[in-house]
Q: What sequence folds into this?
């Protein structure tokens, strides 16, 4: 059996994310995945491994009072084992909100996502929403 293409993996990842299917989403990550979160906020930096990414995503849902969401906002673009995905992400809580575009860059090896680099259209606004480290 052959491994799915990077585009297939990215498509399935974002479908699972859109459904809120966390077990499927987490199962698509390589055990040593690295997640590079931009900015200067409590979630910024490199998060390693499935457990580290799980803690990051759980923290984001807590900080956004369960409202954080992300959708694909354009055509996925593939270059070898990397897939660049235009996204729109938003969240709100009682005292703040954010809604902006970005790009998620996924690296896929042997059918698993091994690295995720995130880019935000307005890093200062994202930092303000997530809060200081």
A:
């Amino acid at each position: 059996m052959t491994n799915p293409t990077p585009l297939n993996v990215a498509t399935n990842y974002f479908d699972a994310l859109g459904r809120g299917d966390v077990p499927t989403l987490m199962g698509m990550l390589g055990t040593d995945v690295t997640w590079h979160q931009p900015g200067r906020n409590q979630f910024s930096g490199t998060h390693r491994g499935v457990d580290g990414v799980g803690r990051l995503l759980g923290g984001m849902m807590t900080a956004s009072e369960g409202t954080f969401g992300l959708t694909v906002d354009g055509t996925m673009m593939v270059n070898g084992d990397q897939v660049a995905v235009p996204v729109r992400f938003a969240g709100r809580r009682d005292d703040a909100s954010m809604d902006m575009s970005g790009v998620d860059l996924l690296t896929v090896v042997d059918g698993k996502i091994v690295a995720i680099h995130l880019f935000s259209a307005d890093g200062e606004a994202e930092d303000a929403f997530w809060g200081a480290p």
Notes: The two ends are 45 Å apart (CA to CA). The first strand starts at residue 29 and ends at 37. The domain at 6-130 is CATH 3.10.450.50 (Nuclear Transport Factor 2; Chain: A,).
